[in-house]
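Hi, here's the filled form for the chain we discussed.

Project: internal
Contact: R.S.
Residues: 185
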Amino acid sequence: MGRDRATINIDIWSDADFRDLTAAAQSLYFKITSHPKLDYCGCVEFHPGRLAAMSREMTSGEVMIAAQELSDKWFCVFDQSTDEVLVRSFVRHDGVMKQPRLAVSMTKAYGAIASNKIRAVLVHELQRFRKQNPDLPAWEKPQVMTVLKQPAVSVRETKTELTWDFPGFLPFHGMGATTDAAANV
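And the returned structure, exactly as it came back:
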């Protein structure tokens, strides 16, 4: 059975880094964390046009700008080569690892992630969570132990430069016709 609700801690408003995000980045974060297809790892397909269509006033270009901000601030990990995004802290905050059966479901979702970068960041987050919560029964599950042995990378060791080269996209209206993000900043 898939997810039927999204858990959003109200403590997120105590996080200075989250409060420092633009409204567009916060909106995108909530769209991703509550997306109907978000799996038990906190991963979902990344399609800017579809995410933009979830709001009347958001464009795919604005999604890309917000996505880059979420990546730069380490809230999400994007991999355009596989069209995936990971909510980095999802496994630590959603409660998945506190329920052994859901932890096994998380390992199945891990197997479906195509991006090696996202997989490695997820394993690092699991290892972090295990250090903070060593007594959870989920750590005893063989499937979880297998995932924990996989390559791990801190999100701070990754870099995401989202490409802005899809048809009809100009990130900043009236600033030229380039599709190079660096030239538009």
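Let me know if anything looks off before we file it.
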